[in-house]
Amino acid sequence: MRAADAGDEMAYRRLLEALAPAVRGVVLRALTRAGAGTADAEDVVQETLLALHLKRATWDRTAPIGPWINAIARYKTVDALRRRGRRAEQPIDGVVESLPAAEAADGLARRDAERALAALSGRTHEVVRAVSLDGAGIGDTARRLCISEGAVRVALHRGLKALARRFAESSE
Amino acid sequence: MKTEDLIRAIAADHHPAPPVAGSLAAAMAGGIAIAALLFATGLGVRGDIGDALGTVRFLLKPAETLLLAAGAWLIVLRLARPEGTRGLAPLLPGLVLVGIAVAGELATAPPGEWSTRLVGSNALVCMVAIPAMAAGPLAALLLALRRAAPARPALLGAAAGLLSGALAGTLYAIHCPDDSPLFVVTWFGLAIALTTATGGLAGRRWLRW
């Protein structure tokens, strides 16, 4: 996280990659404890990683980072459960019928995540796609799209915020 | 999108993120300026301020509200972080001072006077002026708090409402001709409870992330 402050992209990426399994663990445990399906756990993991990034200003640089990461993962898991609960509020006739319905809902959330990227529009979409799926650097992306590096950075940041919002709205 | 792809995009978006506390302090400064402007144009300092400054009952009013505001500020800073605990201990000094003031008033004033002092002369102005002056700071705080990551958004909003209300109460205390702690605890209390509730509702609506 200090690497992100210092502008060290590779170190920041290594940190996020190292954090992902830990976050996955927290999310899976929380989902299991709530008796919920874990089919869309990876969505919550991604949501948490985005939140760690977008909310990094709330980590007190003098405090240990572990509790802060745990708290964000828990919040995002509870939030996902709450959204899922709201979605399942329709009256259900029997337990047998409710089981496939719940699974269908999980599958739906997965597709929402796939759709999330597609839902970004115009340049934001192109930039996020280039940087994430194609693994292009900021400079490459700027040259490819014939825009300035500054514009790429702005579009990327906007795209990540839009992705975070998509997650929060995708199942409402 | 695969998680590793997302991580690549996130890592590319690295840039320094200034701590939230800084934005909050700036929001507070702006909010206080708005409230002070409203105070200067609409209310003003009471006429007998020179005499009032010599009485304990007058001085207690801004002391109580300032202590409450300081406590609420600490709570806002804590709740803005996801791992922040929710203890209300920082409010104790202010609440204890209010309690002492009320006890002192009850001990010294004859019981027949209590209700007159409680009703005071300006309750309606108090109930309008405090929420009106709290609106600016509360709006500025909520805006800055959108950068926060509260585990309990409604509670954070309520703390922001309490902070704004207590600050507005401090300004109003300098205008208000009623000095009885019975008046303060009732009408200041009601007005600040209103801003706290408003902040709580706003927090539930706007501070989720």
Describe the structure.
The complex is a heterodimer of chains A (172) and B (209). Chain A is mostly helical and 172 residues long. Chain A folds into two domains: 1-119, Orthogonal Bundle (Rna Polymerase Sigma Factor, Chain: A); 120-172, Orthogonal Bundle (Arc Repressor Mutant, subunit A). Chain A contains eight helices and no strands. In chain A, helix 2 packs across helix 4 (65-87), helix 3 packs across helix 4 and helix 7 (138-145) crosses helix 8. Chain A is globular. With 209 residues, chain B is mostly helical. Chain B has one domain (19-206). In chain B, helix 4 (56-79) packs antiparallel against helix 5 and helix 7 (123-145) runs parallel beside helix 9 (181-206). Chains A and B meet through helix 1, helix 2, helix 3, helix 4 and helix 5 of A and helix 1 of B.
Brief characterization of the structure:
By secondary structure, chain A is an all-alpha fold. Chain A folds into 2 domains: 1-119, Orthogonal Bundle (Rna Polymerase Sigma Factor, Chain: A), CATH 1.10.1740; 120-172, Orthogonal Bundle (Arc Repressor Mutant, subunit A), CATH 1.10.10.
